[in-house]
Amino acid sequence: MKKQLKFVQRRSILVTMLIFLVALAAAVIILRENLNSMLQALYRANYFLLPLAVFVYLFGLFVWSLRWHVTLSTAGHRIPIRSIYVVIFGGIFINNITPFTYAGGDPIARAYILKKTKNVPYSCGFATILAEYVVDLPVYIFLLISAVLISLEQTDFWYIIFMIGILIAFIIGWSLFFVHVLSSTTGTRRIAKFVSKLTKVFRREIKVAKIERNLKGFYCSSEQIIKNRKVVLYVIIFTAIIWSIAITRLYVIFMALGYAPRLPMLLFAITMPALVGMIPLLPGGLGTVDATIASVFLFFGTPLEIAISATLIERAITLVFSTLVGAGAISYLGIKHRNATKSKKPS
Predict the structure, then answer these.
(1) Per-residue pLDDT tens for 169-221?
(2) 3-state per-residue secondary structure call for 8-73
(3) Integer distance in angstroms from the first to the last C-alpha of the chain?
(4) Do you find a cis peptide bond into 107, omega within 30 degrees of 0?
(5) Do the beta carbons of residue 303 and residue 126 sit within 8 Å?
(6) CA 304, CA 30: separation in Å to the nearest integer?
């Protein structure tokens, strides 16, 4: 077992090194051929608009905090929006330092941070985050289909009807599936037994009763959210606003570079990286996400120097800036948690 584990670890290291070298070689070739034009594009950029792009990013996280505040309040936990904002940044930091770009901090780490800092049960925090994902996917599919239809420009009417029909069918099927799964405690004990056996593989024993109790808490919180139509509507609205803000951020970046982007390109540039980011390769999707964003820009005829410059600025905000701020958020939450723990100890 130990030999197999070492083999897997070595293979993972070799694959990571190979990907890194390929990405580095591609970057060197591109920069060598177009370094001067790219530097000129960055030099001519409107530096009054770049801080606006950062502000738009921060505002998007604020709207995200509002959305989470709604689901947490519905589940019975009224957490200040300011605290939620810091926790989200902590989750983003975990996302950026793990290969699971869009699955490291969400939903695992974010729910864990919330539990440690605000004493919200993990099962409840996980349920509120999952509710966001349930709503987020149909909006994501809608944006992706919209990008396809708009980019085609002249499309047959029946083809548009067919695509809209697929979207509606998906939304209905997706909604019914999760309403059934998240509002039913059927099979709770079986799931608890399975999780208990799984934890033993990692030499950690958790009692079935405890797992079952957490699962029931998860189902209860989920049910409170998905059966409240008003809350679901709020979550849908906030989700649409969050995606719109992401599009606006890219638009501002291109305006700073003096280039007018097309709407389909912006839609593909925010949806495709989210899909590629689910592939666990390098931390923060380094290489894969960057290449995807740049490829989308180039596919729509964006000049190479503008495409590379826009990608660098976008990643500087969503990866470098967010990681630095997220590290500060994690440190702040850690210090705050330690102080709170010390104050509870008897003197």
Answers:
(1) 777 776 666 666 555 555 444 444 444 454 454 445 555 455 556 666 666 67
(2) HHHHHHHHHHHHHHHHHHHHHHHHHHHHHHHHHHHHCCCCCCHHHHHHHHHHHHHHHHHHHHHHHH
(3) 47
(4) yes
(5) no
(6) 9
pTM of the model: 0.77
For the chain, what's the residue count? 347
CA 292-296-297 angle, to 5 degrees, is 120
How many CB atoms neighbour CB 155 within 10 A? 13
**Domain residue ranges in the chain:** 45-338
The stretch 300-326 carries a mean pLDDT of 88
SS (H, E, C) the chain: CHHHHHHHHHHHHHHHHHHHHHHHHHHHHHHHHHHHHHHHHHHCCCCCCHHHHHHHHHHHHHHHHHHHHHHHHHCCCCCCHHHHHHHHHHHHHHHHHCCCCCCCHHHHHHHHHHHHHHCCCHHHHHHHHHHHHHHHHHHHHHHHHHHHHHHHCCCCHHHHHHHHHHHHHHHHHHHHHHHHHHCCCCCHHHHHHHHHHHHHHCCCCCCHHHHHHHHHHHHHHHHHHHCCHHHHHHHHHHHHHHHHHHHHHHHHHHHHCCCCCCHHHHHHHHHHHHHHCCCCCCHHHCCHHHHHHHHHHHHCCCCHHHHHHHHHHHHHHHHHHHHHHHHHHHHHHHHHHHHHHHHHCCC
Contact criterion met (CB below 8 Å) for 280 and 104: no
Report d(CA 13, CA 331) in Å as an integer. Answer: 28
List, for residues 154-177, the tens digit of each pLDDT value.
Answer: 666 666 777 777 777 777 776 666
Residue matched to tokens 């410059």: 309
Neighbours of 53 (CB within 10 A): 22
In terms of Cβ atoms closer than 10 Å to its own Cβ (0-12, 13-18, 19+), residue 32 is exposed
* Cα(305)–Cα(302) distance, integer angstroms: 8
In a 10 Å sphere around its CB, with 0-12 CB exposed, 13-18 middle and 19+ buried, how is residue 4 labelled? exposed
Tell me the two tokens of residue 15: 């694959």
